[in-house]
Amino acid sequence: MTGQEVAGLEVSGLGFSYGAKRALNDVSFCVAQGDFCALLGPNGAGKSTLFALLTRLFTTSEGQVRVMGHDMARAPRQALARIGVVFQQPTLDLDLSVRRNLRYFAALHGLAGREANIRIDAALERMGMAQRADEIARDLNGGHRRRTEIARALVHRPAVLLLDEPTVGLDAEARRAITEHVHGLCAEDGLTALWATHLTDEVWPDDRLVILHRGEIRADGIAREIIGKQTLTDRFLDLTGVTA
Ligand SMILES: Nc1ncnc2c1ncn2[C@@H]1O[C@H](COP(=O)(O)OP(=O)(O)OP(=O)(O)O)[C@@H](O)[C@H]1O
Question: Which parts of the sequence belong to the ABC transporter domain (predicted)?
Fold first, then answer.
């Protein structure tokens, strides 16, 4: 990234404690626009706490978050408007169709009528869900529900997409399809993605990779360079001291 470019996501010196429990300590990393960044960490590493700070569910006086150049503390509305979020827990209304789930979300963002429909169609197409637009969410399998949630997070055209363990509970085929779709969004649409996971097989060799453990960054770079001659699982175990 040159000095002129605005990073999709810039985190500097972020810290957070739950009472006496230190959950994040001096966390800094920067994701260039259009990059897919895997945030890999074992259970309890601090991934969800980081997401809560990035979405302003929690606030902290320690450190700074910038989204497309907007300081989350000084310009939260501008920063949040540029973020799409896929939470770890499913949040679809299962009684509504795929399209109506997205239409409801569009309305929350002040979008209606033709403009909303154009954006909804584009988001569903992008996630391979256009053919299922009129299906009731309850009738979808887990992978298609997750794809619908990602499409919903795209409706307001965010620049940065945050995904907190988006493939939990899905089989290998559904996980692969979702990972490919999100890589496509980055490569073809210039979306910046931060994908939290504890599954090493979701990280591709050319991905940007940040490894978090006990609230601190243990590695930051291109996955293949961090991995070296090891497998990512071996490297991950070495860096985190987590036993298999
Ligand atoms: N409400 C809370 N009160 C006290 N400690 C907490 C609270 N929530 C999380 N923690 C602790 O903060 C640390 C980071 O937790 P966090 O949930 O952010 O990790 P994570 O990487 O998202 O884990 P997982 O993969 O299990 O979701 C852990 O040690 C956890 O036990």
Answer: 9-239
Which of 16, 24, 25, 48 has most ligand 1 atoms within 8 Å of its beta carbon, as the pocket-test mutant? 48
Provide the 8-state DSSP code for 6. Answer: P
CATH dotted code for 1-82+160-244: 3.40.50.300
- Whole-number mean pLDDT of the chain? 92
Residue in 49, 38, 42 with CA at minimum distance from that of residue 15: 49
Which residue's alpha carbon is at the smallest distance from atom 18 of ligand 1? 46
Packing angle, helices 142-154 and 98-108, rounded to 10: 30
What is the percent of the chain with per-residue pLDDT over 90, rounded to a whole number? 78
Q: Can you tell me the distance from the alpha carbon of 223 to that of 70, in angstroms, rounded to the nearest whole number?
A: 28
How far is Cα 223 from Cα 106, in angstroms, rounded to an integer?
Answer: 35
Domain ranges of the chain: 1-82+160-244, 85-157
- The two tokens of residue 14 are 């972020």
Say whether the ipTM exceeds 0.85. Answer: yes
